[in-house]
Design a protein that fits this description.
Number of strands: 8
CATH class: Alpha Beta
CATH superfamily: Decaprenyl diphosphate synthase-like
Shape: globular
Amino acid sequence: MDYYNEELGLKVPEHVAIIMDGNGRWAKAHHVPRNMGHSAGSKVVEQICEDAYNIGIKYLTVYAFSTENWKRSAEEVGALMLLLRNYLKDCIKRANSNNMRVIVIGDKSGLSEDIVETINRLEDVTRDNTGLTFIIALNYGGRDEMVRAVKQICEGVQNGTIKASAIDEQMISDSLDTRGIPDPDLLIRTSGEQRLSNFLPWQLAYTEFYFPEVLWPDFNKEELIKAVEKYNARERRFGGRKEE
C-alpha cells in the first residue's frame, strides 16, 4: 500500500527494488580501479537505506550479487566477496541503530561458510526491528529461485503433504525466497540499461519500471525522489482497464 508523503506531495511506493548498475563504468570514468567503483557503490547503499525509510518506503530490495556474477574474473569476485564480508559485519551495528530488519534472499548454499554464518546472525539480531525491511539478493537468480521452489513443492506432492490440484499462485509465492514480502511496486535500474538480468521475474509481474541514466555510485536521495515522481505519473491497473 502506497504511503502519502505530505512534505513531498507524493505517493511513496511500499516496496522499491533496485538493480545497482554502473559501478564499473563509474570507476572507469573516474580513472580508478573497478573495485573502487564497487566500494563507492556499497556506501551509496547505506545512505539510500536511510533515505528510503525517511521518505516512507517500507521495503527495499537490492541486487547485490547474482548467480551469474560468478562468471566474472576471479580477482573481481574475490574483491566483491571481501567487500561483502565487511559490509555484512558492519550492517549488524548499523541495522540495529536504525531499527532496520535485514533479510537475505538467494541460494546461501553457494556461499562461503563464514558469510552464511554472518548472514544468519544479521537476520537473527534484526528480526524484531520495525523500521525499513532491507532485502539483499545475494547469490540470487530468479530462475534458480523458481527451480528451488518447484522442487520444494514437488517434494510435498511426493510425500503426500501437498495435493497437485492445490498448487496455485499463492503456494508458489509462499515457496519463493520472498515469502511474506509484498511484491515490489517500483523497480529502479541505474545506468540506463533496460533489462531485468534474472532479477525477481515472478515478483515483478505488475511492477512499474524506471531506468535512469545515472550510475549507481552517483545515485542519491534526489534521484530516489525523482524515481518516486515517475512512479506517481504512472497509472497502475494490474491488468484491468482504464476508467473512461
